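cache lookup: miss for this entity combination. No prior model stored, computing from scratch. Input as submitted by user K.M.:
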Amino acid sequence: MDPIFSSGDTAWMLISTALVILMTIPGVALFYGGLIRRENVLNTLFLSFITFSIVSILWFIYGYDLAFGADVWGVLGNLTNPFFNGVLESGTLSSYAPTIPTALYAVFQMTFAAITVALISGAIVERMKFSAWLAFVPLWLTLVYIPIAHWVWGGGWLAQMGVLDFAGGIVVHLSSGIAALALVLLVGIRKNAKLLPHHLGYSVIGTGLLWFGWFGFNAGSALGASNLAVSAMIVTNTSAAMGMLTWILMDKLNTGKPTLLGALSGAIAGLATITPAAGYVNVTAAIIIGFVSSIICYYAVSHLKPLIGYDDALDVFGIHGMSGIIGTLATGIFATPLINSAITGGVIAGNPAQLGIQFLAVVSVGLYSFIVTYLLGWVINRTIGLRVEDDHEVQGLDINLHEESGYRLS
Amino acid sequence: MKRIITIIRPDKLEDVKQALEDIGCHGMTVKDVKGRGIQLGITESYRGTDYKVDLLPKTQIEIVAKTEDVDEIVDTITKYAQTGCIGDGKIFISPVEEVIRIRTGERGNKAV
């Protein structure tokens, strides 16, 4: 691709960036906000909003450079433009997307960083201190997200090996899902660990915004208004729809009745699982990916979670973590150069070595995210403390942590 | 004078209210409450896992009436709140020592 400014590509990437912003605020915020007790609705919404703000600032102080700056030993980017100094002024085109400005690529990537950290909040809602979350967000962004983004997308060691992650199966879903698991093991089980959503209507709106925004997430990752963006959009929608239908089937087979939350969960499983493969696979693969991911995620949240006994409140590991793993491996199987000529493809295209690279990425990123998140959480627990007071948890966090109430209807 | 506390299905409130009005019983206090009887709640399923919901939403109607009107009121409530299924609710009747209308200071049956 010649480094020539394209107003068409720039327009599409501006829209994509806005779409991904919509996914966190208010998409994730509302999706999570509907699923918890009414006494915690504001705190849950707040976690997404505050995360977006913190990441928005830090990304331009040092985040973008460390993730996407010139590679240093395959581990981290070089901090050459702290505070984004000179980047806006120069108006250069991005080396990652040569038809759009560097600054646009940076802000597009910022939205990915923000939603990744916000996703983790679903695991610890209803019981984590707000102050502890305020400390967790910058630490996790810096020590976990930024290195992983560099390894996979910024020219780091996994990128050099040829790992495929189109829009964030490894960087977004696997890293946040595994981090969620590590964090809930430290925070512990809620006093009332039942998932009884107080307002599923919020979750319906949140999921709708996520599905809609996901077109910016996945089709935007084509980095231009191209055929690849169209292809990514179609497989994204196909996988989401298949995921939804499959979860409904699982509900019907296991409990006798289709549930709306199940349908929403299946759609998100389908969306998350197609994410790493979105720019590499065809519709047939997308149908298979949506189908398989929904079944595995269903069993992860309905059987694996009770079996092991951790309290991942809104199933961040069960849905995003599992989807990240399945999608990354599926990319190694189904990726084809017929969709994306920049790659050699996966197992079906005659390149079985790709699956090995994908597997290595799952294991290494999974282990890194788990270990570093656990250490971070441990340090915060020993200093600030992760868990709220018992009576605050019972009465709800809105009134105790924020002096506000979500519902004062009379 | 008697106090009649009635627990009914929320969706039966309008029928019962209208029927009581038709027999001349206007005064009542209505509350949204939660509770359980022999029904012991229901089961809800979220993400493939079943959860027992022990306390169900119900509506409580509180009426203070003249002793001689109680039977008619109870019959009316029973007739209009009944579906025949578990969860229709209950009626509790207890004596009232005194009733005072704050506006006029009237007492007893005149104040009911």
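stored under new cache key. Chain B touches chain A at residues 44-51, 53 (CB under 8 Å).
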